[in-house]
Amino acid sequence: MSTSQQPDPRDRPARLTVGVVGAGRVGPALAASLQLAGHRPVAVSGVSEASRRRAERMLPDVPLVPPAEVLARAELVLLTVPDDVLPGLVEGLAETGAVKPGQLLVHTSGRYGAKVLDPALRAGALPLALHPAMTFTGTPVDVQRLAGCSFGVTAPEELRLAAEALVIEMGGEPEWIAEEMRPLYHAALALGANHLVTLVAQSMELLREAGVEAPDRMLGPLLGAALDNALRSGDAALTGPVARGDAGTVAAHVTELRRHAPQTVAGYLAMARATADRALAHGLLKPELAEDLLDVLAGGTTGTAGAEGDAR
After folding, report:
1. Mean pLDDT within 106-119
2. Pairing state between β 126-132 and 104-107
3. How confident is the model at residue 300 (pLDDT cuts 50, 70, 90)?
4. What's the gap between Cα 308 and its chain centre?
5. Is residue 66 helix, strand or coil?
6. DSSP secondary structure letter of residue 74
7. pLDDT value at position 299?
8. Rounded CA gap, 56 and 280, in Å?
9. What is the pTM of this model?
10. Whose CA is closest to 43, among 15, 78, 10?
11. What does the pLDDT average to over 123-150?
């Protein structure tokens, strides 16, 4: 077929050959999802032994080749490498002539928008930033989790429809993020998802220390309900001793944490202060109760260390 007969990559509905540069947890899952939509993975690159095994498991029979060879074989290339690696990778691929005109070049970094792909754009590539707002395990379950997953989408305006179409083909929901808002967008996701893992892990450790045999079973319903309430009601869902202004209970918490898990105290105090600020701002924490509470959170001794509270 001559060049003039080929469809414009900006709006072609044809099935694409897909390559993956960086066989971490994200790239193989996205490629497998695109395969289900009818596209054809043709090449993948991976450095570590773990990434190579992951690629073989998620994309069987797809050859493992160097990054430049991935670009030589694929019309749609997924750059699924760590954020700090991405700019140098793009520059290197462009400088060595690996980028082909008309090639769809997709990165999955939450931090960056489309401008990080400018070196490839100058080489004729079509730049897309498609960040799945999902945590990945590196197993086939990730493909299922993409169904209904939101993607932060940033691209040149003329490629917006193409970017959103790819997300929909992977079962996701496109959410347009302006280029200058990408760092804030990514910070918001990290604040919620990454810190949630830390909080849950610490909570489970403390429950084990308290003698609970199955902390995951205890926390599951509680945290599930808390998450659901927070997503539905925002700050109105705040509960617990901080929102109630129960300074004695908070003081008891701090005392016990210092005794059993001093490494958790700083995080507890920081989150409690943030909770108190939000509860005050939304009228949940009574101002007359806030003074003693804030004194405890500032390191004071107000409140009875033996006071008891609950998880309401």
Report:
1. 97
2. parallel
3. low
4. 37
5. coil
6. -
7. 78
8. 53
9. 0.84
10. 78
11. 95
